[in-house]
Protein 1
Amino acid sequence: MKQLIAVLCWIGMMGVPVFAQQLDLAVGGGTPSSPGSSGSVNLANFTPSLRGGTYAGFGGDALFSRRFGVETEVNWRASQGSYAGQLPYRPLFWDFNLIYVQRLHKHVAAEALGGIGAESVRFYESTYNCDFYRSCSNYVSSTHFMADVGGGIRFYPYGNFFVRPEARLYFVHNNVEFSSAYVTRYGVSVGYTFGGSK
């Protein structure tokens, strides 16, 4: 079911450029922060905080008017972390949003967005598991529905190239593997604007 939803979103995004007045594509990096466990630590019930590590990502948006459009992005931990000091893991966030972009100056634009997506955490094992179709993997995934809000400031130092400091707040439903349902990601992206007026 998760794969079907991802495929349908991707197909929808492929048709978006035909009707868009402006397209923006970007790659970037950042790091998340999340509240830790409160009170005394009980090792039997300990859940770590989802914070730290370098995250890589890419995404894009399509504006159907000068200011409104849709946006999608994916961000994942660049290297495996250590879950509670014992188990290698790697989180991934993907989302699909509505976006509002306001040009403030010829070289500056602000953006705000919000939407839905998922947090998928892969926990790696030392052995491979194979299914009936001989597809093998050395991890199990735990995926949770999430909502997100965020924004950024685009600086255009040269032509249509931009640098964008950004922040996202993820609200992860039933995030039982970690100490909080709230995860904030801070980062910087570089990208390029196709079309649009400056």
Note: Strands lie at 22-33, 55-63, 68-77, 81-83, 87-105, 108-130, 136-158, 161-172, 182-195.
Protein 2
Amino acid sequence: MPARVTSRSVALAAIVGYLLGSFPTARIVGRIYRVDPLRQGDRNPGWWNMRALVGDLRALPVLLFDTAKGAAAAGVGIALWGPWWTAYIAVLFAMLGHSFPLFARLRGGKAVLTWAGGMLVVATTPALIAIAIGIIIAALTRRPAWGPLVATFTFPVLQAFFQPATHVAATGVLMTFIGLRFATGFAGRIRDLSTSARTKVSPV
């Protein structure tokens, strides 16, 4: 494929992916039910926080649309007929858009669902198996949080049985981004707690 075509495909995948990811689903649903996920709960504008704030059923659109953003981005990447990793570029930029949304003052979530939606498109079989395992684990342990966690870390292992190592490595890059988002979020919470503690003991 000519370099010019490849560069155009990748650039377009990045732009479309970012715009898709920037759609602030949680904040829009929050406005309907008069909650602000940036100020309430764990202050993460994603499905898990919205689920805690408004309930499973009301938060369902956040789950569906945040997942669809990644799936749509991956689909665009594939449709552009670039190299195989064009779809991964599209998903990465959708994750960037979700985490730093253009339409929400760059204050977004951790992009786990957006990543999951992308993986459902680029590696459908291992993604479905990982989801099934996660559901089983959540049901057996009766701990809903364990399901997504197990599914996330099971996925690249399963992917290695179905796709080349280069694809698994690309998945690793995207998962590293998620890890960095969790790390920075945790650091921010610690900083906020520290600031709050200093304020409480301040003599003035």
Note: Residues 100 and 106 are 4 Å apart (CA to CA).
Protein 3
Amino acid sequence: MNFRLLLQTRVPILILCLWIHEGWSQDKSSKSPENPYYIVYNIRNLDTVNDDWEIMRVNMDGTNQKNLTHNKDVAWTYYGYKDKIFFISDRDSAYRNFYLYQMDPDGKNIRKISDLRLEDSWMSSRKKGSEMVVSGRIGKEIRFQLFLIDIQTGTYKQLTNDTGAYFRDPCFSKDGKKIVFSHKKNKRDRNETEELFMMNADGSGLMQLTHYPKDNISYKDYGYKAGAARWHPTENFISYISRQDGRHGIYAVTPDGKKQWKLYPSENAAGWHDWSPDGKWLAFNSSDPEENQFEIQLMSWKTKELKQLTNSEFKIQMAPIFVKK
């Protein structure tokens, strides 16, 4: 057989087989049981003049970082439900006038959900992702109040109505019957620390959960005293951010408020975080104590094995959430 003819017929077939195998391997890896979620997080772009914030996505092994938004806006994600990413953005309004949006894990099918203007705040959902609790505002007087939003229609209902106080970072309990949130009774009192409170989903039964230690060296520091609470999916505690002993850390409290403890001891600062839906993984942003460089970390809740998912390309990388592939 002619050698040149042999090469002409077999080489293309070989290349095609390799291409198919490579694509199959990548697809298999991305959908493997060990890598079922994307980690989605916020970065501040290098274009600091325009205050450009983008939403990034990365695999659980730190591979394939991808910018999902590519928009000259301020866009922050604070919640994921199954394969949907929910984020706030000022893309269709004035600077930092935030509204709620939704997109797919590849950054497509972006849609504005509601005309309710939102505060910069974490959020949560219940009823299979059909209803969301947010911190929103109406005009100049009604600010940092809790609202329920129907995800399909965009209609909303106000839950709290205390304009002298603020309510932010709401999170539903696993059964959707209670909401935990960060709260100050007098938002103008600089000596009052924010604390975690809990109430029934109809707004009744307000109860304080945390009590910040007034003798702590960080009592007068700028930063969270108790905020961005996340309900653990399988265990009986609520995690939250608190600046204590000179740095931000991740703390926990039981739903009855009887037990509080530092969840993740570390010499570095740890802050915004999220639990995987199965409760097996904790993603959080970590930094040096002075908070000069932020990175995204992933920890196995069972083994406490830690993996850094980001590099130092961007100074600010924070607020990770889990999204199903």
Note: The two ends are 49 Å apart (CA to CA).
Protein 4
Amino acid sequence: MTARPRPGWKRIWRTFQLFASLAIVSGIFAFAIPKIADYHAVWRAIAGMTWVEITSLVGAMLLNLTTYWPQQTAAMPGLTIAQAAVNNQSSTSIANTLPGGGMVAVGVSYAMYRSWGFTNSQVALSVLVTGIWNMFMKLGLPIVALVFLVSEGQTTGGLLVAAVIGVTALLGAVVGFALVLWKKAFARRIGNGLGRAMSFLSKLFRKSPVIDWGERAVRFRRETIDLVTKQWVKLTVSTVVSHLALFLVLLLAVRHVGVSEHQISTAQVLGVFAFGRLITALPITPGGVGIVELGYIAGFVLAGRDHHAGVPDDVFHAQIVAAVLVFRALSYGFQIPLGGLTYLIWRHKKSWRKPVPTKEAAVAEGAGL
């Protein structure tokens, strides 16, 4: 008789993740950041912003929110902008609040897509393509930032290392993706290899092995080629615009708290932003909270350490911390309640519900019949 996995271990792991995240976040905000800047001085820097500056920040933040939706509609033909907004905001809110929230967010996103009539293959393809395009952008940003910094004679060792890592990883990712699309046999081998790995893991958890992953990879390759051929321009443009819109929020936050171009140049802000985007890939705390803030603050302190003459260190550091906290409040904190609202919209918007096509229809659709 096969023994069932004990559900208690899952609960224990979740509890450990929760307390570990709370410990890390508390340590950063209660001990690490106060060593860099006094919170009273930080608040004075924030309170010193004018209504025009606050309005421009909020406007940039709202613009940034809307830039994510076209990418989803490009990766999921048939998805409306309104549905993309609901899906994106709800999943982002979950990922930003729960330990291990990324996996939960994927599950919620999947449930939404299925309720709107999309097939498993369409959902998987959308997740894959948007993930790859976002990864390409995150790995490419340090390279772009380095080019701008070199042109201004402001290279830094940290960004140089990040750029080298980015170039290496980006080339590997592009070559791997191209090989999968280039050769059917290569896609089948990758699928079979992943299937064997998943079967091994399934055996450890006393579950049935996976089958037909090689043929599934071949079908997936054909669907990916069809989608990318038709949508690569929209995917690329929407991905670039979404990252630039987020960068604009950070740049405005830096300038509006009083940090000038002379103290930290726009190219340096881009370099710190590129480094911060790489940090967000580390699932240590929900949404990288604490880790990301500390990374941005450290990056800005290093970037402006030789260029803030006439401004005392404590004032300069307070401005930097203020800029980062404002940026994160708009790009991270604001999305949490907004995601709760969009989740309620999904639950109550019955007119969007559609039955998922039957297996035969889905196969015919994937084959282009």
Note: The CA atoms of residues 95 and 103 lie 8 Å apart.
